[in-house]
Design a protein that fits this description.
With 179 residues, the protein is α/β, with parallel strands linked by helices. The protein has a single domain (4-178), classed as 4-Layer Sandwich (Purple Acid Phosphatase, chain A, domain 2). It has five helices and nine strands; from the N terminus they run βααβαβαββββββα. Helix 3 (60-69) packs across helix 4 (87-93). The chain starts with a strand and ends in a 9-residue tail after the last helix. It comes from Paenibacillus sabinae T27.
């Protein structure tokens, strides 16, 4: 059975991100290899991964090599660091789909790179990246940056479990369980 996964902000090849986010790697090679292994540990060949932006700082050939090693059908939503390259660049590098805008998933989840303003009356959950180790609390935001998930993509089932738990803790009664 195909599973859906979500992740963001790998920053493959980006040395400075290790310092900015206190990533526990000695160098970019170790960071890249660890994140590839973590991805493939979580994601099977038949699974689908939505990457919510800021994938790689490497050239097309090196980015393509990484993508070819990653399991799953890969969709990229362009992040702020991805936008210097065209949609076709990312497709040629190895993503199966590339979106310049957000994607609505299962009619209830807004997939975006940057978190969107969501007031408590909006009926959506914004699954996002961009803010790395920071976190928005509540049922309207879900941060899938690698720093929060041990550098692995997070499954849709895990997202639903966390949101349902938050809902119970906050005493809210929304329609999460119906999604």
């Amino acid at each position: 059975m195909t599973k859906n996964f979500f992740t963001s902000d790998h920053h493959f090849g980006h040395r400075a991100i290790m310092e900015y986010e206190s990533r526990p790697f000695a160098d970019t090679e170790q960071m890249n290899e660890s994140m590839i292994a973590a991805w493939n540990e979580a994601v099977g060949q038949e699974d689908r991964v939505f990457h919510l932006g800021d994938f790689s700082f490497l050239n097309k050939e090196e980015t393509s090599r990484i993508l070819s090693r990653l399991n799953g059908y890969k969709t990229l939503i362009l992040g702020n660091h991805d936008r210097g390259r065209s949609r076709s660049w990312w497709l040629e590098a190895g993503f199966q789909e590339v979106s310049e805008n957000g994607i609505i998933f299962k009619e209830f989840f807004l997939l975006t790179h940057e978190p969107l303003y969501m007031n408590r009356h909006m009926p959506y959950v914004n699954v996002h990246g961009h803010i790395h180790g920071q976190k928005y609390e509540g049922n309207n935001h879900f941060n899938v940056c690698v720093e929060h998930w041990n550098y692995k993509p997070v499954s849709f089932e895990t997202i639903m479990d966390v949101l349902t738990s938050r809902e119970a803790q906050m005493g809210n009664r929304s329609s999460l369980s119906e999604s």
